[in-house]
Amino acid sequence: MIELYSWPTPNGQKVHIALEEMGLAYRVHGVNIGKGEQFAEQFQRISPNGRIPAIVDSSGPDAEPFSLFESGAILIYLAEKTGQFLPSDPVPRMRTIEWLMFQMGGIGPMFGQAGHFRNQAPERVEYGIERYTRETERLLKVLDHRLGEVPYLGGAAYTIADMATYPWVQVAERLGQRMGDFPNVLRWSDEIAERPAVERGMAVLKQE
């Protein structure tokens, strides 16, 4: 059983999707980041950085309980645990990890900053809005170019790189982007949205 500590943000949703896609049994523990629950001592024992998501696998390596934080690390761990959605052949495997890292190091932080300056900052900062809105657009262009060459980010197959990136693309229009400007991303996003496991994963904790 996987104990999942999360909240319905893009970083949480990528792991929700993976758990559903991989058919793993899991139990959800909501960590309401709006109320500051991520700073609770009990949660920080699992996630030292005080960020969601985090997991505890009761049947981890050597059949011992194993805790893990950082969504990218969790996705790789779950893929290797189940033998799904991370190719074993070296080239597609590294392409998948490459685009997973692109999401972790680029899309997540930059989209997050765009969201902060556009929607959450206590006062309007034009420089921050312009800088991160433009960077969001640039990153979407990189995605669009990639998805004009291959069906999925890792190549021919749907992988954890797609799971990681899909929830972030869903917030792009709130960050000043027009998805019609990125037809390959839109095609990819629409196709992924039709997957039943993705629909279930995106719904986790939404009622709260």
TrEMBL record:
Residues 1-86 form the GST N-terminal domain. Residues 89-208 form the GST C-terminal domain. GO terms for molecular function: transferase activity. CDD domains: GST_N_Ure2p_like (cd03048). Pfam families: GST_C, GST_N. Keywords: Transferase. Belongs to the GST superfamily. This is Glutathione S-transferase, N-terminal domain. It comes from Halorhodospira halophila (strain DSM 244 / SL1) (Ectothiorhodospira halophila (strain DSM 244 / SL1)).
